[in-house]
Amino acid sequence: MSQTRLLALVGSLRAASINRRLAEAAAQTSPEGVEVAIYEGLADIPFYNEDLDVEGKVPAAALALREAVTASDGLLLVTPEYNGTLPAVLKNAIDWASRPYGVGALKTKPVAVVSASISPNAAKWSHDDAVKALGVAGADVLKEASLNFGTIGQRFGDAHPADDAEALTQLAATVRLLADAAVAVKANA
Ligand SMILES: Cc1cc2nc3c(=O)[nH]c(=O)nc-3n(C[C@H](O)[C@H](O)[C@H](O)COP(=O)(O)O)c2cc1C
Predict the structure, then answer these.
(1) Which backbone phi and psi does 53 adopt, to 5 degrees?
(2) Residue 22 in 3-state DSSP?
(3) Could you tell me where the DSSP H helices lie in the chain?
(4) Is the beta carbon of 23 within 6 A of some atom in ligand 1?
(5) Does 117 contact ligand 1 (Cβ within 6 A)?
(6) Is 42 helix (H, G, I), strand (E, B) or coil?
(7) pLDDT tens, residue by residue, 66-75
(8) Is 82 helix (H, G, I), strand (E, B) or coil?
(9) What is the pLDDT of residues 16-65, one digit of tens each?
(10) Mutate which of 82, 115, 119, 158 to test ligand 1's pocket (most atoms within 8 Å of Cβ)?
(11) What is the mean pLDDT of residues 94-108?
(12) Is 12 close to ligand 1, i.e. is its CB under 6 Å away?
């Protein structure tokens, strides 16, 4: 069977992002035949603008995101929480990937959402808003693959999540569920 390609979209752009490290740890858990690649171009995408979303005008960075999402078999969204919701960089990515209306790259795409923040609430508001936006965009959000990490400053401030056995086990289960859903979609295509 061909390789199953999962694409991770990380909502924090900072170099030392713990959310990014969670995505890196998730990638390390990929079973054979599955790869998780972290998308690197989110910061380059202009804010969504319907005037630009017409043939010949779509910014190259937005086109690249659409192509990467289309080429992937499933998405792993890893998000912190900013002011009670998901960071603008991720909402912008969802907006671009949701269009053209009805045939956007997110349509029927299996997605697992992982949230992480320094608060004990574990970015659950951000998680919920990501699930809502992805669902409206037509994605197939896998509730059973959800994860929430709280108090990440204490837990992962000095230790990479890849060195945390419990986090690795949880991330591996999420990657496995997402990969299984992606394989099922491919088999039915
Ligand atoms: C603008 C801003 C708003 C934030 N708002 C929240 C919030 O509403 N809830 C929360 O739990 N953490 C909030 N935080 C703290 C983030 O959880 C924290 O910065 C987290 O480490 C970000 O993840 P990262 O390590 O991947 O960058 C906020 C941080 C910033 C910079």
Answers:
(1) -90, 55
(2) helix
(3) 18-28, 60-71, 88-97, 124-136, 152-156, 165-188
(4) no
(5) yes
(6) helix
(7) 999 999 999 9
(8) strand
(9) 999 999 999 999 999 999 999 999 999 999 999 999 999 999 999 999 99
(10) 82
(11) 96
(12) yes
